[in-house]
Amino acid sequence: MANTTDIIITCAAEDDVIDDISRNTGVLLKKITDTTKSGGNKDVWFESYAACYSTLEVEEILRLIQIFKNSEFSYPEFAVLIISDDNTPKIDGVYRPETAQEDKTSESVVL
Fold first, then answer.
1. Of 22, 36, 101, 109, which sees the most CB atoms within 10 A?
2. First-residue to last-residue Cα distance in the chain
């Protein structure tokens, strides 16, 4: 779909934080995961919330990014915001909360 802003947040199950982000930005983020079992008896712990709008104004997107980065996630190391905006590609990208720990993918793993 042309001229849209696509937004997705994946994080631990933190509905209250997502509700705060929606309330403070005016962007209604809807849960898009269906809580089905991923294998065995365990429910998936991660949730995804998304929104798709006719292209948002740059200021609205920047406000969303800032509020996300400053949100008080219980598990910030698992929180990720992804934005794709058809009219402002320089804003496209992946964002993490400011309280997230350093990326652990560069650490050596010894098995």
1. 22
2. 45
Contacts of 83 (CB under 8 A, 6+ apart): 5, 6, 7, 61, 64, 65, 91, 92, 93, 95
Encode pLDDT of 38-85 as tens digits. Answer: 556 656 678 899 999 888 899 999 999 999 999 999 999 999 999 999
Separation between Cα atoms, residue 27 and residue 53, nearest integer Å: 9
CA distance 53 to 56: 7
Strand, coil or helix: 89: helix
Sign of CA dihedral 24, 29, 30, 35: negative
CA–CA distance, 47 with 80 (Å, rounded to integer): 11
In which residue are the tokens 């794709």 written? 84
